[in-house]
Design goal:
single chain, 3-stranded antiparallel sheet, 10 helices, 3 strands, WH_DNA-bd_sf, GntR_C
Length: about 210
Amino acid sequence: MKHRKSVLLVDVANSLATDINTGEFTAGMWLKQVELAERYRCTRSEVRRALDQLVIERLVQHVPNRGYHVYAPNVQQRRNISAIRAILESASAKDIIANTSAEDLAMLQACADKFEHFTLHGNILQQYEANMAFHRALLAPCANQEMVELIFDLRSRVPSAALGQWSSHARIVQSSQEHFAMVEAIAQKDEQRLATLITQHILQENDKAR
């Protein structure tokens, strides 16, 4: 019974995350638990647990004594943080290449494969988690772990799993292709290529979806 409840929680959270990402619930909209329970055919307590999960994912915001609403992102803040991340992460290209072992590269390849799988067969939360795993593996070999901590602190300041991270499914597919290109650049020890790919990936330059 406990397993069933945990599965149901994931299903409700994924369904709500998908509906937020596709615009069924827009930024700033208040989410009524009674209506969500009816929509997803579950109990209010199950809805509440799913909402709390999406608070952690920064898709939903909880206001004490008022309830939950869809996170309303600050577009300029997102752009500013992406610009800073691009500078820091592209500057890490030399560090990444110098310290990536064969085992690290194999792990990064596996993370790229997993993200590609979820672009075809996964939901938005699975795609988000796989993307984060790739970026953790990409930066893990860096000697400058203080910079790595700063980069992930910056990532935590904006909504994560949806709400603008990817503009379309085509952009998700393109992100997967960029992951593989970064793996190849590291294997070839091409520092400049890796730095360029990281910048394009973060800023979503050359976006075929646009």
